[in-house]
Specification:
The complex is a heterodimer of chains A (268) and B (283). Chain A is an all-alpha fold and 268 residues long. Chain A is built from 11 helices and no strands. The two termini of chain B are 41 Å apart. The chains are: A mainly alpha (268), B alpha/beta (283).
Chain lengths: 268, 283
C-alpha cells in the first residue's frame, strides 16, 4: 500500500454548524447594517420611490426638527414607553402568580387553560372596539390592550417553565424533609426563573407590537399616533423615524432584560 | 450481626397503565436491612428495584404489606433516609456549599431547656428541637466537602463540575444529613469506567470510616459484589426477591479485590442467575 499524504487527497468538508469566527461575525453584522443603509439611500435616489420612502438624510432632518424645542418626539417616546411599561408591568406581576397557581394546582390549570388557549389566538387589537366602548379614550384602554397581549404570552411561557422543572429536584427536596411551602419557594421559583425571564422578553416584544396597534386609534400622542398622523400628510420621513425609534426601543429593552438574565442566572 | 434497621414485609405494588392493564412491580417482597449493612440489589430492568428503593425512601406509596424503620412505619420521605439519585439531583442555582447546606435546612437538633417545675419549683430538664445555625451548617458542609475531596470547589455551580464531581457533591449532601441509612439508586450508572472505579473505592472507604447502613441499587454485578455485605437478586415480572447472597470478603476492599478468586466465584454465581433471568424475559 502506498502512503498518500492528507494534502494529496480531497478530504470532504463537512457542514460546520458552529458560530464561526467572532471577528468575521462582527464584520458581517457591521457590513450588513452599512449595506442596508446604503441600499436604502440609493433606492431613495429614484424620485418615484422617494415619494413614498424618505431618504436617510430626510429622516435625519425629521429627527432634528421633531426633537427640537417645539417638536413632540420626546413626548411621543415618553408616552409610548409609559404605556408599554405600565401594561407590561401589570401583566408581569399578575402572570407570574397565575402561572405558578396553574403549575401548582392542576384544578386551577384546568379552569384557566381553556380561556388562555382561546384568547391566545385572538389578536389583542381585535378587542380595541370593545375596550374603547368600555373604558373610553383615555390611557386605561391602552394599558388594558397591552396587558392582555403581554399577559397571555407570559402566562403560557412561565407555565411551561414550571411544568419543565426537573422532578428529580422535587424528589431530592422531599427527602431532605421539605414541606410543600418550602418546595414552592426554594425549588419551584428558582428552577422556573429562567423561563420567567424568557417570558418577560416575549411579553415585552408583544407589548411593543400591540402598543403601536393600540395607538393607531383614539390618541393624540405616542409613536403609533405620530406614524398614523404623518401618513395623512404623506410625511414618510416621520413615519420612518417612528418605525426606527420603535425598533431601537425594542432592541434596548430586550438587551436590558438579557442583561438581567445574565446577572441573575449565572448558574445556567 | 446487629439489630434490624429496616423491615420490609409482604410488600405488593401494582402500577396501572393506560387501558386498564396493570403491572405487578413488587409481588410480596420481604427483606430485613440491619444496621451498618451494605445491601446491594441487582436484577434485570423491570424487577422493581427502583420501586423498592422509592418505597423505603417514602417517595412512592405501596398497596399492601409493611415497611418500618426502627419499628416505626415509613409514611413519607424524610432526612433520616438520605437518597442519592443517578441523575445527581443537584440544585443548579446553588453552589456546591449551598447544595450541601440546603440538605441540612430541615434538620433539627435537640437543645436542653431548663424550666422550673410548678409543683416543686425545681429545675426540670427538657429538650427542644431547633434548626442548625448558619455557622454550624457551614462547618458541617466544610467537613463533608473535605470528605469527598472537593475542597476548592465550594463556590462552583454544578454546571462547572464533571459527572463524578457532581455525584460526589450528592454523596456529601446525603452524608451531611447524618441519616440512619443511605439509599442509592444506581448512583454511578452514568459515569465512565475510571470515575466509577474511583467513586466505588471512595464510597467504600467513607462507609468504613463513617459507618452507615447502605442500600444500593445497581445492574452491575461486579459493583454489587465489590461493595456489598449482602447482594439481593431480584427477578422481574412480577418483581420478587429471587435469592440473597452473603458476600464473605474482608474489608477494606478496593479494585484489587476484583482479582481475588473468591470475588470471582461470587460474581460468576450471581451473574449466572441474573443473565438466565434476562434470557427468560420475553423480548
Amino acid at each position: 500500500m502506498a502512503h498518500v499524504d492528507a494534502k494529496q487527497v480531497n478530504q470532504r468538508k463537512l457542514k460546520d454548524f458552529s458560530d464561526g469566527n467572532d471577528k468575521i461575525k462582527l464584520l458581517l453584522m457591521v457590513c450588513s447594517i452599512i449595506g442596508g443603509a446604503l441600499g436604502w439611500y440609493f433606492i431613495t435616489l429614484v424620485p418615484s420611490i422617494n415619494t413614498f420612502l424618505a431618504s436617510p438624510a430626510q429622516v435625519f432632518r425629521a429627527l432634528i426638527s421633531e426633537s427640537s424645542a417645539d417638536g413632540r418626539y420626546f413626548k411621543d417616546i415618553t408616552i409610548s414607553l409609559q404605556r408599554v411599561l405600565i401594561g407590561f408591568g401589570l401583566a408581569f406581576i399578575t402572570s407570574v402568580p397565575v402561572a405558578f397557581l396553574m403549575g401548582w394546582y392542576p384544578k386551577v390549570r384546568n379552569v384557566i387553560e381553556p380561556w388562555i388557549q382561546f384568547f391566545r389566538t385572538i389578536p389583542p387589537i381585535a378587542l380595541i372596539p370593545l375596550v374603547i366602548l368600555a373604558m373610553g379614550l383615555g390611557e386605561p384602554p391602552k394599558y388594558a390592550i397591552i396587558f392582555v397581549a403581554a399577559f397571555l404570552v407570559m402566562v403560557v411561557t412561565i407555565n411551561q417553565g414550571i411544568k419543565e422543572v426537573d422532578k428529580i429536584l422535587v424528589k431530592a427536596a422531599y427527602t431532605f424533609g421539605a414541606a410543600d411551602k418550602d418546595l414552592f419557594i426554594d425549588i419551584m421559583i428558582p428552577a422556573a426563573f429562567p423561563y420567567i425571564l424568557v417570558g418577560a422578553r416575549l411579553g415585552m416584544a408583544a407589548s411593543l407590537t400591540t402598543l403601536i396597534a393600540a395607538e393607531l386609534t383614539g390618541t393624540m400622542f405616542g409613536l403609533g399616533a405620530r406614524i398614523q398622523g404623518a401618513q395623512q400628510f404623506m410625511d414618510t420621513s416621520i413615519v420612518l423615524l417612528g418605525i426606527i425609534t420603535i425598533g431601537v426601543i425594542g432592541f434596548v429593552l430586550d438587551k436590558l432584560l438579557l442583561l438581567v438574565e445574565k446577572k441573575l442566572s449565572k448558574w445556567k | 450481626m446487629s439489630e434490624t434497621l429496616i423491615e420490609i414485609r409482604g410488600v405488593h405494588k401494582e402500577y396501572h397503565v393506560d387501558g386498564g392493564a396493570s403491572v405487578n412491580a413488587l409481588n410480596g417482597v420481604d427483606l430485613e436491612i440491619k444496621t451498618n449493612e451494605f445491601v446491594c440489589v441487582v436484577g434485570p430492568s423491570g424487577c422493581g428495584k427502583t420501586t423498592l428503593l422509592n418505597i423505603i425512601a417514602g417517595l412512592e406509596p405501596f398497596d399492601t404489606g409493611s415497611v418500618t424503620m426502627h419499628g416505626i412505619p415509613i409514611v413519607g420521605p424524610g432526612p433520616d433516609r438520605g437518597v442519592i439519585f443517578q441523575q445527581y439531583a443537584l440544585f443548579p442555582w446553588m453552589t456546591v456549599r449551598k447544595n450541601i447546606e440546603y440538605g441540612m435546612k430541615f434538620l433539627r437538633k435537640p437543645v436542653p431547656v431548663e424550666h422550673p417545675n410548678g409543683k416543686t419549683g425545681e429545675g426540670v430538664r427538657k429538650t427542644r428541637m431547633v434548626p442548625y445555625g448558619k455557622e454550624e451548617k457551614r462547618k458541617m458542609a466544610d467537613h463533608y466537602i473535605k470528605m469527598v475531596n472537593l475542597t476548592g470547589f465550594e463556590d462552583s455551580y454544578p454546571k462547572a463540575l464533571s459527572g463524578g464531581m457532581k455525584q460526589r457533591v450528592a454523596i456529601a449532601r446525603a452524608y451531611a444529613l447524618n441519616s440512619d441509612v443511605l439509599l442509592m439508586d444506581e448512583p454511578f450508572g452514568a459515569l465512565d469506567a475510571q470515575t466509577r472505579a474511583q467513586l466505588q473505592e471512595d464510597l467504600l472507604s467513607t462507609w468504613e470510616k463513617e459507618k452507615k447502613t447502605a442500600f444500593f441499587i445497581t445492574h452491575d454485578v461486579d459493583e454489587a459484589v465489590l461493595l456489598a455485605t449482602r447482594v439481593v437478586i431480584m427477578s422481574a415480572r412480577p418483581g420478587q426477591i429471587k435469592e440473597i447472597v452473603d458476600i464473605d470478603l474482608p474489608y477494606p476492599r478496593n479494585q484489587a479485590t476484583k482479582l481475588d478468586a473468591a470475588f470471582n466465584t461470587y460474581k460468576n454465581y450471581i451473574w449466572d442467575i441474573v443473565y438466565k433471568m434476562y434470557l427468560e424475559i420475553p423480548k
